[in-house]
Design a protein that fits this description.
Layout lengths: L5 E4 L11 H14 L7 H8 L6 H10 L4 H22 L18 E8 H10 L8 E5 L5 H4 L5 H9 L5 E5 L2 H9 L3 E5 L15 E3 L5 H4 L2
Parallel strand pairs: 1-2, 1-4, 2-3, 4-5, 5-6
Helix pairs in contact: 1-2, 1-4, 4-5
Length: 221
């Protein structure tokens, strides 16, 4: 059994239900409309919604086609997206997974590292009363630069490790980018495969595969 100093968790698909397509697409359409663009090609909506595949260069190219400023566009889109996520949580259309309560049995410092907005991570920790479970948390700011630092970039994982003064950790995620980020940071990974989420194929083999967060305490003790 590997000894760890800490455990880090992704958020969407791990701690809480992930956002669905339509609210993100609507936030994107609202952003274009606020900037005077009413007719947007569907592939461009999809490109913004799938922000894990978006980078600063492709965003700039997309915005140039509509003659809008990419920085203003992105910061506006992020605000609309944050609003839609908060509305979903408050309405109960997205919620916390029941097995999060099992993390109270993990006897190691824990943190959250997500590609979602930092403000949303803070909201979720407070709204779902998860804050006592985690000693640090990182999401991305509302900047174009944040696209470069998203997982699989290990930047925020490394910052969380520094916060926890940890040299080894297990990172728990639900996507290939989580497994890649963990491995690039030199950490073990646990890929959670929830029945309610689409199957994930990984180009890098995760250290562990689990079906529930209840398995975490066994992996780290």
């Amino acid at each position: 059994m590997t000894e760890y100093d800490a455990v880090l968790f992704d958020s969407d698909g791990v701690l809480v239900e992930p956002p669905t397509y339509e609210p993100m697409a609507d936030a994107t359409r609202r952003t274009f409309r606020s900037m005077g663009v009413g007719d947007v090609a569907q592939p461009h909506i999809d490109a913004v919604v799938d922000d894990e595949s978006l980078d600063a260069d492709s965003l700039a190219e997309l915005c140039a086609g509509y003659d809008i400023d990419p920085t203003e566009f992105w910061e506006t889109r992020e605000r609309y997206d944050e609003q839609s996520q908060i509305e979903a949580f408050r309405a109960g259309t997205r919620t916390r997974y029941d097995d999060v309560s099992s993390l109270a049995d993990v006897r190691l410092p824990c943190g959250v590292v997500s590609n979602n907005h930092h403000a949303i991570i803070e909201f979720k920790l407070d709204f779902f009363e998860m804050a006592p479970l985690f000693e640090t948390h990182f999401g991305r700011p509302r900047t174009v630069e944040s696209l470069r630092l998203m997982k699989p970039n290990p930047h925020y994982i490394e910052r969380a490790m520094a916060d926890l003064d940890a040299s080894s950790a297990l990172y728990v995620g639900d996507k290939e980018s989580d497994v890649l980020a963990a491995h690039r940071a030199g950490l073990d990974s646990a890929l959670i495969r929830r029945d309610s989420l689409p199957a994930v194929e990984c180009s890098v083999t995760p250290t562990h595969e689990i079906e529930t967060l209840e398995s975490i305490s066994e992996l780290v003790t």
